[in-house]
Amino acid sequence: MKIVDVKLTPTVVLKLKRPIADAFIWVPSFRAAAVQVFTDENIIGTSTVGTYGLEAIKALIETELKHVIIGEDPMDYERVWDKMYWYTLNHGRKGIAIEALGCLDVAIWDIIGKALKMPVYKLLGGYTDTVKAYRTGIDLNLTVNELVMLHKKSVEEGFDAIKMKIGRRNIDEDVERVKAVREAVGYNVKLMVDANNALSVRAAIRLAKKLERYEIFWLEEPVLADNIEGLAEVAKNTEIPIALGENEYLKFGIKELIERKAIGVLIGTVSRMGGVTEWRKVASIAQAWGIPISPQGGDWVAAHVLASVPNGLFMETAVLELEDGIIKPKLAINKGFIKLPNTPGFGWEVDWDAVNRLSKIEWIRHETTPPTLPRPLHHLK
Questions:
Q1: What sign results for the dihedral spanned by CA atoms 239, 291, 255, 68?
Q2: Where in the chain are the domains?
């Protein structure tokens, strides 16, 4: 079997019923696209491209990586991955180059599963056929009352683990918001908080100390991801496990985070970690150090990789209130659990009706504000 072509769908716009916000970004709508890898046996592998840096990722796939993998056998996934990695080495050891590589790798695993008539999670080891999910709000722009209602609803829907955003530029305000959510959902629900890199080391330690009384399950990305020494300092000074990996891309960086004792829980999106091929290696490194792994992305790919490993914790799903999507079927969550289907590959396909309809919608650009600058008033309530 040989790869004969790679095609990308038009970029689509996924409208949100309400904007979402974290410590530095405000998002009124998402962009998305799908990648399809074609073979000479008429097997098509599908993957998706996320909103941030989307057009650059599409360009890298179309003008650079597409030509690297055409003619290759998708069953030789290690060889294909290594060729792409070395091709991108001079222009992106991390970031969008690795994410572009990862999107193609995911599509290749979809091909492998379809060719062997097996779901990907079974190909990877089949540790379980049911995985647990937590619900995240991306909710820093909500009032305290709105925040509480959002997370109470998630608990009522059967989730026993939730995550909220912090980083309101005022530690006491963050503490009050966490307190309100904790009191509303009780202590039988796991509560995680995510600072999205926004705090200084000193502020992160102060905040963590104040939050310990609320039995926080993890503190995610408290300081800038590049400040590994600072992350290790925060980890050393709090009982709350530090969750990292969203902005680290490959096994080399994850290995350093572990060796520096900065990380307590490994997170991250599969495509941003270089796809399934690299994610498997990262998961094994984490397992060797007794570190649980919790993939992000909220899609079928995250569910499959999580189901394949013994150190899988749960996966992120977000309260995005999207009006539509371009992949079918949608992820099915029942009271916080996801049952993996026996469909070959990832069990998904492009919804072309949705692509044609959503590609005509105008995109409203997201806005970012560095944590050291005043935030626009419309970003927060």
A1: negative
A2: 3-118+361-372, 121-346
> From residue 192, how far is each of 12, 211, 265 by CA, in Å?
31, 11, 11
Q: CATH 3.40.50.620: does it fit domain 3-118+361-372?
A: no
Third-level CATH fold of 121-346: TIM Barrel (3.20.20)
Instruction: Tell me how long the chain is.
Output: 381
How much is the pTM? 0.96
pLDDT in tens, 31-85: 999 999 999 999 999 999 988 999 999 999 999 999 999 999 999 999 999 999 9
Rounded Cα distance, 168 and 254, in Å: 28
Tokens of 1: 């079997």
Both tokens of residue 195?
């600072």
* Residue 27: alpha-carbon gap to chain centroid: 16
The residue type of 46 is T
In Å, how far from its chain's centre is CA 236?
26
pLDDT tens profile 186-210 = 999 999 999 999 999 999 999 999 9
